[in-house]
Amino acid sequence: MAKGKKKDPKDAESSSAPRKPVQVKLKINLWTVVGVILVIFFVLPVIITGLQMLGSKNKVDISQVLVDIKSQKVDKVLIESDKLVVNYKDGSVILRDFRIY
């Protein structure tokens, strides 16, 4: 190469190995799609219900909360939108959801 010539970017690319285009092949089987839909509509709600039941260990009936308030076992009661948070004097906290359907 002569001193006065600059490198042409096209010459550099053409001298290197040719690049292959990237191709992504995705095989979608109809039964796979049906299986995923069945999992979403039938298995996922069961899992969500189970997780909600695990969180319900700290819940008591509203009538029991009223009895505890009358017997002065409750330190503080907070109402946040549709939740009732009951702080007992022994340090335990009860969370009660109440929704009107």
Rounded to the nearest angstrom, the radius of gyration is 33 Å
SS-based class = alpha+beta
Strand order of the largest sheet: 1-2-3
Our count of helices gives 3
Q: What series of H and E elements makes up the topology?
A: HHHEEE
Number of domains: 2
Cα separation of the termini: 84 Å
Low-confidence stretches: none
Mean pLDDT: 78
Strand percentage lies at 15-25%
The main sheet comes to: 3 strands, antiparallel
How is this fold's topology laid out?
Blueprint: H1 9-15, H2 30-54, H3 62-70, E1 74-80, E2 83-88, E3 93-97
Antiparallel strand pairs: 1-2, 2-3
Please characterize this protein's 3D structure.
This protein has helices at residues 9-15, 30-54, 62-70; strands at residues 74-80, 83-88, 93-97. With 101 residues, it is of the alpha+beta class. It folds into two domains: 25-57, no CATH class; 59-101. Strands 1-2-3 form a three-stranded antiparallel sheet, covered by helices on one side. Strand 1 and strand 2 (83-88) form a beta hairpin.
